[in-house]
Design a protein that fits this description.
The protein has 306 residues and is of the alpha/beta class. The protein is built from 15 helices and nine strands. Strand 6 and strand 7 form a beta hairpin. It is elongated and about 85 Å long.
Amino acid sequence: MTDPQSLPDTIDAVQSMLAAQGYVCGRALATVVFLSLKLGRPLFLEGEAGVGKTEIAKAIAAGLGRRLIRLQCYEGLDASSAVYEWNFPAQMVAIRTAEAEGGTTRTGLQEELFSDQYLIERPLLDAMRPDPAGAPVLLIDELDRTDEPFEAFLLEALSDFQVTIPELGTITAPLPPIVILTSNRTREVHDALKRRCLYHWVDYPDFDREMEILRARAPEASEALSREVVAFVQRLRTEDLFKKPGVAETIDWAKCLLALDMINLSPEVISDTLGAVLKYQDDIQKLQGSEAKRLLDEARASLEPA
């Protein structure tokens, strides 16, 4: 269980805490966050890239005043890279120094070399350490990039909130961290790990929710420009694209338009700034010429009163 002190005591309080950090979420997501904090269960978030999975971990950490520890997953990540490693260069210097000075026994040297002094802590071990500010937020980001052996190791580590270092023994968290795992679903994560977690699918927001997000993250944008940007991005997501734009791209695009002192969209402006909202040349190519104008016309039509 996480420390109940300072945690939000209602779902509304969770929404307010996240909103204070510029993170706008619906009641369903706020509910699963509340339950994760209340029950001390890891929270597993799946969804397309750019929909706000990573940002919610940042918002929770900031809202609770806790440290955010991020483990960025990648192909080939193993337990040692995620937990700890020994500072080998410093150990070699210590060995040479001991040899030069003499008087140090082999046992004494070994105990010194494999002590905290030469231990490099990686995210999982760091998250197990006591923290005066309270249990940290451990973000295990893009878990789907790893392979099954790492998932199996993670399952054990999150079950008991402890890790074992052969030279030092087992280290158990005095207070389990607040764990958030994310996945872009490039592959399925094993059911055994999912069963240890509370689960939520983070979807693209509807128009009204995305407007709320843009107001929170780019408040300097005018209402008219924001409405056109959101309506256009919502139309883009209905197109056959290799990678549909996420909320992060909506925010980036709005900020780019503001930097260019734009007050509304035009086909020319869209063509010039598509690299802020689409990240693949094939997708950008589809929006050249009359396609941008067509989508802009449809977006504007959707904004007109019924």
